[in-house]
Amino acid sequence: MSGSRAVPSEPRVMGLLFVDKPAGITSHDVVSVVRRAARSKRVGHAGTLDPFATGLLVVAVGTCTRLLPYLAGEPKVYDAVIQFGTETDTDDRTGTVIREAPLPDFSALPHAIASLTGPIAQVPPAFSAKHVDGQRAYDVARRGGVVDLPPVAVQVHGWEIRETGADRITVRITCGGGTYIRALARDLGRALHSAAHCADLRRVASGSASVQEAVPLERLTPGAIVDGAVALRSPLPALDAMAHETLDDDGIRALSFGRAVPATVEGTRAALLYSGDIVAIADRVHDPVRGDRWQPRVVLLTAPHPGGAA
Using one digit for the tens of pLDDT, what is the confidence trace for 82-109? Predict the structure, then answer.
């Protein structure tokens, strides 16, 4: 129909939600709660948190789930308590003690932390979601099997020591994605010729998202999102590394057919907007005849475009 306006699908339940995950539940459990609150099956999360951990979990609802691969989720910031004297099979407080050692000399702490800062090769915990011969490492470990995981390259930007006790320290760690804080705790104990595990872990930030903006899980009652009791966020701030290109009616019509649209702003990738809504993610391509264009990679449109069929 002429003059109709294209909008993202599921407009009432499309967006991001920052959840403050409590201890004792999985990230998938949080997704199940959000599905009931949004009355939608289209819910996913970015960056899994261990069950014992608390803090920020970024959840996408509706068609926003298609944007999860594009969200800027780094750096990640964690507050952790590292307990010395014992190492566990899970590298956290929930595991079985497998080694004991004297408490460390904290005068060596700065040197040990420096060895675990920057680009490092980290051996993931045996109880992790890494694959071993086609199986999850934690499944093999739970059956008593031997888990021999190769080191993985990770980035640790920095440590901030917030408190030091007789047998533990509280730290804030800023790192890249894929870094296991549990493994950092384990390796810090070993670097200090002691033993250690992560006794407490809380994620406080992921990219531009902060736990201070997160919703407690108890607020996510059935229908709370659909009813407006809990509001979803625009994904645009989480796409802060991208250019923003605003489309006119001709552009949105072309996009609805999957066609490239003119690129008028700088950047290699862009969020395409129409009437303030994000409608697509596109990559820059060069057309020798028409110049630079935005080639859509993810399109969120389902409603009719302006002007009807072309």
Answer: 999 999 999 999 999 999 999 999 999 9
Half-sphere exposure of 160 (CA within 13 A, CB side): 8
Give this prediction's pTM: 0.87
Q: For residues 112 and 108, what is the distance between their CA atoms, to the nearest angstrom?
A: 6
Does 284 have pLDDT greater than 80?
yes
Residues 87 and 51 in one domain: no
Domain hosting residue 227, numbered range: 11-72+209-236
C-alpha torsion sign, points 164, 92, 52, 59: positive
Note if 148 is an active site residue: no
> How far apart, in whole angstroms, are the C-alpha atoms of residue 33 and residue 6?
30
Q: From residue 74, give the alpha-carbon distance in Å to each of 38, 52, 112, 205.
A: 27, 22, 24, 9
One domain for residues 254 and 165:
no
Neighbour-count burial of 256, counting CB atoms closer than 10 A to its CB (0-12 exposed, 13-18 middle, 19+ buried): buried
**Structure tokens belonging to residue 290:** 């028409």
Task: Please check whether residue 275 is in contact with residue 264, taking contact to mean a CB–CB distance below 8 angstroms.
Answer: no
From the list 159, 185, 204, 155, the residue with the least C-alpha distance to 81 is 185
Tell me, yes or no, whether 310 lies in a domain: no
The predicted model gives 219-223 an average pLDDT of: 97
Cis omega before residue 216 (within 30°)?
no
Tokens standing for 49?
Answer: 């948190």
CATH number at residue 279: 2.30.130
**From 20, 50, 79, 92, the catalytic residue:** 50
Q: Is residue 103 situated within a structural domain?
A: yes
Largest distance between two CA atoms of the chain: 77
